[in-house]
Amino acid sequence: MDQQLERVFEAVVARNPGEAEFHQAVREVLESLGPVIKRHPEYLEMKMLERICEPERQIIFRVPWTDDKGEVHINRGFRVEFNSALGPYKGGLRFHPSVYLGVIKFLGFEQIFKNSLTGLPIGGGKGGSDFDPRGKSDSEVMRFCQSFMTELYRHLGEYTDVPAGDIGVGGREIGYMFGQYKRITNRYESGVLTGKGIGWGGSLVRTEATGYGTVVFANEMLKTRGESMDGKRVTVSGSGNVAIYAAEKAAELGATVLGFSDSTGYVVDEGGIDLDLLKQIKEVERGRVSDYVERRPAARLGTSGSIWDVPVDVALPCATQNELNGQQARTLVANGVKVVAEGANMPTTPDAMRLLQDAGVLFAPGKAANAGGVATSALEMQQNASRDLWSFEYTEERLTEIMKKIHEQCATTADSYGVPGDYVTGANIAGFEKVAKAIQAFGLV
Ligand code: NDP
């Protein structure tokens, strides 16, 4: 890393102790920006990087709720409003026991550049709680969401901050939170949350968008080598929102999806996974991967190793951060992987990323490859503003067009900085430049 950027990084670490994921996300971006500050030395004088690394606002709050037995629980809620240079803060809410400030800050930081890449007017933010929705009844989840929103609502607004879903937050949770927001404010402010249900302000394709977009991006990368998803062998990790719809789009483009996982294990189904069954188990029954194997004799449950041991052409990490390490990347390369596209945020560890890139694997960073979700959230906001509902076909067309443009931006930026095919550098620089220009235009605010 450039020495001046190294100093910026050291200051970030010192100011944000114990936030390993945030440090990792910042380092990855700063490592790409050496050539940018050579072209724009004024950014150093303006402390542009220090400004981008410091959230505009960080909110931490208590979330009290009672379970079905009447027992009281206290969780912690977060919203990090990271950067509003390009538009209202935009980014999901994560409910997972691993959530703490460092996770929310890494996600919020990534979100700034991702949202910039979409070309849509949205700033970066992220939030969530250490609440674990697994094993909770519907009414417990509802009471938690209501309590969470009772504090969060005062910080939101369609022109201020617009959350959406993420791990542990899907249509059900967004419904409860929107209901509580509407009740407290006495406003049907559709554009204040995205990922809403169809029929009360949601957009078609939002559910599918992140997974679909990731596969469109992977397909674009393959095209640069005269190939496509057609006929490829694919695995996805996770079996949540992103994983399911990445698998669906991959199959639609002619690939065979051989496996998926959750935090309890992984499944290999050599003939291609049964998506209807997977959706039934995960979206309706909220079950485990073992339930799939029980109902599908041809499939087997992985008991040792990981989903990355399965030989494939295309690997799509779609579960969580740092879920693909150096050793696993080595296995993928040895087995002939051609593409790794991140559906999740920062799923690949830094050493794994380097290893894949050095081996000539087409590697798509999450901030580019999974930007389809937030892009479609912005399309949901557009529909809310005009009180309209677009068709599935039209919305998907817009999504595909946005993903192709993001791919092109990353590729041409990488070319123009002398690192063709380096989508990490391309995404970081292209995302950063737009935000930096806006920050510069606003003066010191
Ligand atoms: P979901 O909650 O729908 O699904 C998450 C999946 O990942 C589940 O199968 C879950 O398994 C698995 N998982 C979570 N944590 C772990 C862990 N520590 N180890 C192994 N598996 C784990 O979340 P999403 O699909 O919405 O999100 C997945 C990733 O995609 C996240 O990184 C998120 O930030 C990112 N993303 C999501 C977007 C969206 O639109 N939803 C947009 C852009 C990025 P289990 O149920 O067993 O925990």
UniProtKB/TrEMBL annotation:
Family the UniProt entry places it in: Belongs to the Glu/Leu/Phe/Val dehydrogenases family.
Keyword list, A-Z: NAD, Nucleotide-binding, Oxidoreductase
Biological processes, Gene Ontology terms: glutamate biosynthetic process
Binding site residues for substrate: K90, Q111, K114, G165, S377
UniProt subunit comment: Homohexamer.
Record-linked PROSITE patterns: GLFV_DEHYDROGENASE
Protein name: Glutamate dehydrogenase
Residues of the signal peptide: none
Residues involved in NAD(+) binding: T210, N241
Domain (Glutamate/phenylalanine/leucine/valine/L-tryptophan dehydrogenase C-terminal) ranges: 203-443
Domain of life: Bacteria
